Amino acid sequence: MEEDWTKMTEDEIREFCKAEMKQKNMTYRHTATGLYVNRHTLSGWLTGRSTFPVGGAVALLDKFGYELTIRKKRGAE
After folding, report:
1. Phi first, then psi: what are they for 45, rounded to 5°?
2. What is the distance between the alpha carbons of residues 28 and 24, in angstroms, rounded to a whole number?
3. pTM
4. Is 70 left (phi over 0), alpha (psi -120 to 50) or beta?
5. List of long-range contacts for 32-36, beta carbons under 8 Å, 24+ apart
6. CA distance 19 to 51
7. Mean pLDDT for each 10-residue chunk of the chain (77 residues)?
8. Burial class of residue 43, CB neighbours in 10 A (0-12, 13-18, 19+)
């Protein structure tokens, strides 16, 4: 059964990305290089020590074959 990732918090996105990196045996250095950031920046994003910019999240999720989607909340006008 596939998990529903449609309503993830920032912390859940961090955990998801760390799990994907681990599953794919990707190091911080290798992953960061592909995102054009250094490994300390990536580490800061994934530990919550620094702000996870939307562009960084989009690029990182894209690396794993996922996309970030924005949609209007139900009941919002």
Report:
1. -60, -45
2. 12
3. 0.78
4. beta
5. 34/63, 35/59, 35/60, 35/63
6. 19
7. 66 93 95 93 94 90 90 75
8. middle
